[in-house]
Amino acid sequence: MERGNTIQCRNFHVTLISASDLEDVRDLFEMKVYASVSFNEEPKTEKKTPKDKHGKTNPAWNHRMVYTIAEAGTLRYGIMLVIKLYCKRKFLPDIYIGQVQKPIKELFETAHPKGGSAETTMPLRKGSGVSQGELRFSYTFGEKIIVKKHSKWKTHVNTGANLLVNFALAFTGLLTTPIEVSIFHQKDDVIA
What we know:
This protein has helices at 71-75, 104-111, 152-172; strands at residues 2-3, 6-20, 33-39, 47-48, 60-70, 80-87, 95-103, 117-126, 129-148, 190-191. By secondary structure, it is an alpha+beta fold.
């Protein structure tokens, strides 16, 4: 429920535990696998685990990520949790291994009767078929909280600052990867 400048939300914790029996996508060298988590594949919601350096086709992370989700997002279809696995490479693009997708509504309906937490293992998919391997993760929905919406002008100022700083660093040759600048601290972006 939204009222003025506030919105009802829940903190959503997702812990990427491990993957098993992945396809070995490397001809040379060992696999170093990481996971990318997002909602509806929106880049601004993407968070990544560190790469696993030892598990090869059976990586383990035990890496927790925290999001804030609008309460309405737990009650209707439309928000999809997307977890993609990649094999890290040094000088070439990372290799896509496969992914799992699950609507937040279904995750909430499974976890809510169990006190808000659950753990699941899902097969990886690649394209329209099943890929080799499976992913294990746990998740928790916190109690309802009231979150103040960010004002639009602060969001625009942060976006402008990011563009300006990244352009200046790229122009001088000091930038190899984009950086995030925040003039106004935004505690959490709410996933609608």
